[in-house]
Q: What sequence folds into this?
């Protein structure tokens, strides 16, 4: 057991082996959720002009005691700049408008009384220089670096792209992923009734859902029989058309676990096989002749999902160019079992306590085949090898489903 | 100011006004990320048979001292059950296979030595009853409730659906959402160059990204000029074809903020207008004649996004039937400004400290128009009205972008 790579070492070997996927240019409306692969600089000062922050009037404070003004014009949002020539006058303004030339103060409409063409300030209201003016360039200056490659494009990033005139954006291309289920015991979800000895295919659906949730939407599902020649032939086809292969099952040490053999025959370089962890020990990972990323996950559902969230998804995110952030860390709310030689992954449900801690309650699966309790969990915590159970209060990284 | 509803009251009024969106049946392969709207019961015992957990041999422990066995057959995964008649024999088994009738112990292949048709147990290996057998029904029993309406279908839920033969699943229909930008100052993202007084449309792209991220993928963008008749006409069309309208801009108290007037004319019942909060005070919310959900958000980008994550997204999730969970709570890593009368929303960046706390560093926006710093943040914390700044260590709810 001791010669198996640790979880950390396995992660490092995987990370060091990965390619960087290609980029593509997409219209802004198709960019949400994608991984940015270009720099974005400020197109112009932001705001691009001294900007009115309230509906009201713009005035000149030359004569600080003046409280009555004659309306000399209107400056609406979107209009080119008006000019106020005389400090006895004012210009009506709306939020978002340019501050008229000659004005240095905005008085909100609530602080004014209008009578015909005259506007009076409400008693007691004291106008101040630059009041309710959002100055040109105060948010950012033309040429400022606003976004760097490696960020996921969420709402704030989309606002920045649109505001800076980026109508097409360079993002990571979404790789084609094939999920391959192995195992002659697998029945289709539609099959009725189940024959003796059969269980339904479910891992591939779960893996596809995890992938789609992270933006890997180009996913095809297929299955191969427990047969070396058929498996090799199908994998050859998929290696020719996909950037990522994810197999489930067929990687233990049994007679029929010929996935490693098939991959070897196809020139997929093994980077690792088996990791000092539970569940998920049999995981296999390699790189194909054209840089294809190949994960062969254990066939047990919990094992497969643990390997997916701990290795597969972070690996594909790295290959898309996403800047990685440290794993979320949570506090065990109850003791959890560990192993002296193996890193253990334990399903947990997370809630946020009054101290602002993320408290993780273990929901151990009785076996690595049992996933019926997983819907009540948020992910798994990673517990280092230990001779003792991890006590309540242990801080551990969380990998969400 | 004091008569404005609080954030909590606004949330309650919104929640009490919402319809429940319709359901639809979708194939399992289209169900990832959707909100479940049916119960799912266990189709059969899980596992459906006593299941072999390791490749190896299955034996009968009748004669506990026996260490040599004659291979009497093979039981592969997916095969109907074999029978072992004689405790001097064994049956080769693979992971996932049925335990052959008459066997009560599985010995892993690593603990055996094979010579022709004979298998010997490795010296020192002590077989035990029921070893490496995953008993029928130990994960769940036929008819057990596995999933309830209101869960989001992630990887674990997809596994449960597939494993239980649910080939079509009843989920919340995804509502048609229209995002309507108002403001004559808005230029299209492609327009070159910007004219004086113009800024580019960006709120609608940001709102669309936030919606898509939560599964609201049927989003159309449109804009209306600052004109009551044109706005009313366009909103009438959208109310006829969409379940959700999200407007940005036009809801303050200025002359040109006629969105509330247009909505009133179209029979959209106002539930609230203005909330005791900063930013986002001018928000308007109402329900249309056919139960359409109408949010009119402020035009300032930060205000619009704050209102989206605090009200719009939770409201639409409720209307989809998603069971709500308490907001994530974080700990302020530095003081943050508050207001005596208004709830304040402050952008923060979250990192997980060594104590398992989510530490939130405030990244205040200089103005509610400034979103150039938001890409460096994870969301906003909600700070209750107070005469003093919120000190470091304050625990506050987090709303992620």
A:
């Amino acid at each position: 057991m001791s010669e198996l790579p640790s979880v950390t070492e396995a992660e490092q070997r995987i990370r060091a082996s990965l390619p960087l996927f290609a980029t593509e240019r997409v219209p802004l409306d198709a960019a949400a959720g994608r991984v940015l692969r270009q720099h974005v600089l400020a197109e112009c000062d932001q705001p691009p002009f001294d900007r009115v922050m309230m509906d009201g009037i713009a005035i000149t404070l030359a004569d600080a005691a003046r409280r009555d003004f004659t309306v000399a014009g209107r400056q609406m949002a979107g209009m080119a700049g008006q000019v106020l020539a005389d400090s006895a006058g004012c210009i009506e303004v709306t939020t978002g408008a340019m501050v008229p030339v000659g004005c240095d103060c905005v008085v909100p409409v609530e602080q004014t009384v209008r009578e015909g063409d005259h506007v009076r300030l409400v008693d007691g209201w004291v106008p101040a220089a630059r009041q309710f003016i959002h100055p040109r360039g105060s948010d950012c200056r033309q040429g400022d670096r606003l976004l760097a490659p490696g960020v996921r494009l969420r709402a704030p990033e989309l606002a920045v792209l649109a505001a800076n005139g980026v109508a097409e954006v360079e993002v990571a291309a979404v790789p084609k992923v094939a999920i391959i289920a192995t195992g002659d015991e697998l029945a289709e979800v539609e099959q009725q009734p189940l024959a003796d000895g059969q269980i339904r295919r479910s891992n591939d659906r779960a893996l596809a859902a995890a992938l789609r949730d992270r933006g890997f939407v180009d996913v095809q599902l297929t299955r191969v029989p427990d047969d070396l020649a058929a498996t090799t032939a199908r994998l050859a086809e998929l290696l020719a058309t996909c950037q990522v292969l994810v197999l489930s099952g067929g990687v233990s040490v049994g007679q029929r676990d010929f996935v490693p053999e098939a991959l070897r025959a196809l020139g997929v370089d093994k980077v690792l096989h088996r990791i000092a962890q539970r569940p998920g020990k049999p995981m296999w990972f390699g790189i194909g002749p054209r840089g294809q990323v190949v994960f062969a996950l254990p066939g047990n559902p919990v094992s497969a999902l643990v390997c997916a969230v701990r290795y597969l998804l972070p690996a594909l995110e790295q290959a898309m160019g996403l800047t990685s952030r440290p794993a979320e860390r949570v506090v065990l709310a109850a003791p959890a079992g560990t192993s002296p030689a193996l890193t253990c992954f334990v399903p947990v449900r997370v809630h946020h306590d009054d101290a602002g801690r993320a408290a993780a309650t273990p929901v151990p699966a009785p076996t690595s085949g049992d996933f019926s309790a997983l819907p009540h969990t948020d992910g798994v915590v990673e517990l280092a090898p230990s001779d003792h159970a991890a006590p309540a209060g242990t801080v551990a990284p969380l990998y969400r489903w």
